[in-house]
Amino acid sequence: MLETFKATLTYIRRGLFHKIKQSPILYFFFSSMVVFSIVMFAFLTLFLMKTEADVNLLDVFYGLFFIFFMKSTADFHTHFVNSPYLSYPFSTQVSQTRTIVEIFFAIFVINIGVWMSFSGLYLVSLSFLGVDITYPVEFLLFSVGVIIGILLGCSVAVHFFSSLRYRLLPTIILLGCYWFSQNMLFIALTLPLAVLHLSWSLRHAMPSYQFVKRKERIKEKAQVKIRDVLPTLFHREITVLWRDRLLFSFIFTSISTAIFTGYLAIYGTDLLIPESLKEYAGEFLPDMFVFLGLYIVVIYTSVFPSLNLFLNEEKTMWILRNLPLTNETIVKGKVLSLLLCFVTALPFLAYISIFIGLDNIIFLTWLLVFSFIAGIIVSVPLGAKYVGKKSDILLLYSIAMILFAILGTAGSIGNIINKSIEYASVLWCLILIIEVFVLLLSLKLSSHILSLK
After folding, report:
1. pLDDT level of residue 453 (50, 70, 90 thresholds)
2. Over the chain, what is the mean pLDDT?
3. For the packed helices 338-345 and 304-311, what is the interaxial angle rounded to 10 degrees?
4. What pTM was estimated for this model as a whole?
5. For residues 288 and 318, what is the distance between their CA atoms, to the nearest angstrom?
6. How far is 35 from 292, CA to CA, in rounded Å?
7. Which of these, 380, 348, 364, lies nearest to 446 by C-alpha position?
8. C-alpha span between 291 and 261 (Å, rounded)
């Protein structure tokens, strides 16, 4: 009874313990940041109550809804669509639909456990701060919203990763109704409809498991022959970026982030901040929006490809190890390809200038270059440590937190220099020269870590 459910939970538990054993520091850091974030949200709630600020619960509701919607989609893809252990359950006499339902049940239990744990910690923190937490109706509505998000997330994973994507239409219509309704009670009342939609989706889930999207090989008119080692490694890495269509994704992210953050820099204070808090946040919010936009671009164009340079070598690292190349040459060849990723980040400067002007373009250019190099310095050694392993969201999250602290400090210092020193550009150049020296040390460290692996 519930064999697949138990096996899925066992697989997840063993994988988690294996990762914790391999990276105890990262998981300790991640757990600490999660607890700290929840406690800080409790303090923020107390602050908003003290200042009598108007908080729209509907925005918080939608935020939680889409967080669990996306998480359940990713979980269902991992443990069903792309699962490495389902060939045996599907080959037995047990109904395939029953197996799929048990997989969903395991994902549902895990996500509900996460919601109850985090919300419980948040409520306990509020109680310690002396805040009245007797809001059973609101908590029930939020819990139902989380459940609906989990149900619809699994439904999306079923059809999105199949050849029959037109079956996503009912889910899109339902999400559209949620968005235009702007009513938590209406969304909660559609729970039976979400259950029926999920049951229909699970009965038609096998096409997503059986569907394999193959990439067509493009015939090249001429073979590229490069004799030098570093240009060859550079060509190899940018070929992977081009094949996986990552470069266009980087450019789109740079442009869209610049437009969105530029808009918020102009209108964000009036749209997002209550009147009672504008006097506290009105001065620094535009700069903060621009900084967050630049931070997102750096994470996507510097940290993400820096990690993928090594994590993607799961099945090909043995080839590099059997070539007459030093580890230092391999690391330098990989990092050299990040120059193309830096070019994809430059549209951020062009489009953000449309909104904020060219007054601080030199400072923003310096901050982008500094941030991009800092992302490489932090990411490449960790990528070398976990070379050949599958991408882990925890690793990306940990680096993002570390980089946020570094860039926040650098941005504050750079802004002070920009406003108080006449020849700030000279000092910025000196900082970049020191950072390049640190980058060389980081590459040396990465080469040493790679040799240990």
Report:
1. low
2. 81
3. 150
4. 0.71
5. 45
6. 22
7. 380
8. 9
Total residue length of the chain: 453
Q: Which residues are within 8 A (CB) of 283 and not within 5 positions of it... i.e. 6 or more apart?
A: none
State the amino acid at position 234 in one-letter form: F
pLDDT at 222: 46
Task: Convert the pLDDT of each residue in 349-379 to its tens digit.
Answer: 989 888 888 888 888 899 999 999 999 999 8
